[in-house]
Design a protein that fits this description.
heterodimer, A: 248 residues, alpha+beta, nine-stranded mixed beta sheet, 7 helices, 9 strands, B: 190 residues, mainly alpha, 9 helices, 69% helix
Chain lengths: 248, 190
Amino acid sequence: MENRNSDSHPDIERLAEYGAGHLDTVEAGEIKQHLEVCPLCRLEIKKMDRFSKIDTDIQLEESSDWSRAGAEMERFFSERIIKRPEAGKDNKTRINWKRWHLYWLMPAAVAATLVVIFAIKGPAPGRMESDHSYGPLRGDTVEKVNIELLVPAGRINRVPLVFNWKSDQEYEFYSLEIFKADLTEVYSCDSIKGTTLILPDSSASIFKKGETYLWNVKAYKSVERVSSSNDSWFKILEKDNSKDQSDQ
Amino acid sequence: MRTSLEHISDEELVKVIARDSSDEACTELFGRYNKKIYMWCFSYTHDVDEALDCAQEILIRVFKNAGFFLFRSSLSTWIYKITRNYCLGEATSRKRQWYSRMLVLDEYFDAGMVEDDPGKKVEISEDIERFIEKARDVMTDDELEAFILHYYEGMRVREITAILSCDNLTGARTLIQNARRKFKRIVGER
């Protein structure tokens, strides 16, 4: 439910700066004028304000059962984000010297396999372009990652209207999400049957040339999400190189 | 969860995470935002387990993407944006029970929510703008905001009271009732 048309509303970042009084007089004047006629942006500022204080709402803390939920969140953080060793466990590795060779042989075999795969396939389009700063990719997705995103991927010449993926089995339906590198959602679609989504031509305007987009797919059985893909990326080149080549 | 980094700013904290992603820095970030994220999710889902699912998914996104943080805004705004987008997206995709409240909007938006039409969201986004354009003439600013929060985003009266800084629940309830009455008048005029 992305109810903000990015062409006619200021960015959330700019609204936040306005709310914090960080904009110069001209910019602040523009935003003020816009806010007078735009309830969506007025609400956005009010919601940001609420977000900054929501954790001090004692009534909501009780009604949302924070005492239980907070413990669950900490457990999730420890187990899934930073993967701490379980408390009280002696985590020192005790080496069985009779089988000592396994301790270096197995990692070496894995490393060698990876080198071979990399040499054959080359670098696959990962989460982001190589010239982007990588973030700490901590934490795994909640479900099994059994979906492989096929197209679009990497640098492309035209706005993509066909999205295609492959999954280990047939699922009831899929959902697809496309977002910018700053995680602003630009498009999402639920209840997709099959492993291809064709966007209507009218959707082409949601993409901008030169911008990098991330996308992912999730699979569902009934209401339960059962599988997902890693994020893939694509960037629509400013200039259509395929056209240049055909012209030559 | 206290750490030795509790005195550094949010922005410095993200730099530390981007540099070495130490457990301590991640723990500090988690400590600062996990309650906000969870409680925001709860205000959309009204269910502890669903709010936990959403909050955990958002946490994964935050930690996976901390390196993409471009310092174009404060960290708080960035996390708000991720949380907001996720909650609004989930609200649409899961079609929660309270979502049936939105049926009242279907009277205005001819086509309603057709799940298998990928272009639908774009249309709805345009429709809400059209609706606002028309409603602005008959609703007060507060009524229109309360209406959007309640019917379009599915928030409960208590949360609307907090967001709109109403004096009490009755204040927010009155805004919603007035807005609904006026909305029916708009629909009737079509």
